[in-house]
Amino acid sequence: MRRDLNRPKGPGAAVLWDLLTFEHLMTSQVIHVIYWAGLALIALGAFGTIGAAVGVAIRDPFPFGLLLAIPVVIGGLLVMSALILLWRSFCEFYVAIFKISEDLAVLRADVERERLTRASN
User: Fold this and answer.
1) Which of 3, 14, 70, 111 is the most exposed place for a label (fewest CB within 10 A)?
2) In a 10 Å sphere around its CB, with 0-12 CB exposed, 13-18 middle and 19+ buried, how is residue 53 labelled?
3) Residues 77 and 46: beta-carbon distance below 8 Å
């Protein structure tokens, strides 16, 4: 049976306690920050693709540059869309894993509480 840890009282001490122990998982908040940072990088890639296509269209003579730039923009946006979906699914996978971990911790606490109730009767 696990023994209960003595949590310190006070707002600052509770936050520090959560950082130093693994009683409360903070990964779901960190995953949200990582998700938005990844989306920002993907958006930068999309803007780079559009910029490259505009550069090709401006540099080359009119019909050839434009004919080359349009498929580059469409292909780049399709690739960026696929990257957004993959990044979202990757982050959701990790959130789901940590939610399962939290649910298992609650189930473990329920089982221990039930064992203590049976032992005291």
Assistant:
1) 3
2) buried
3) yes
